[in-house]
Amino acid sequence: MIGRYSFLQVALVLFGAIFCLVYPLALVWPSGWAWHEGPPAASQYYMMIVGVYATLGLFLIRAASNPAANRSLIWFTIWSSLVHAAIMAVQALQNPQHMGHMLGDVPALLLVALVLGLLMRGVEDRNIATG
Question: Which of 77, 83, 92, 99 is deepest in the core (most CB within 10 A)?
Answer without folding.
Answer: 77
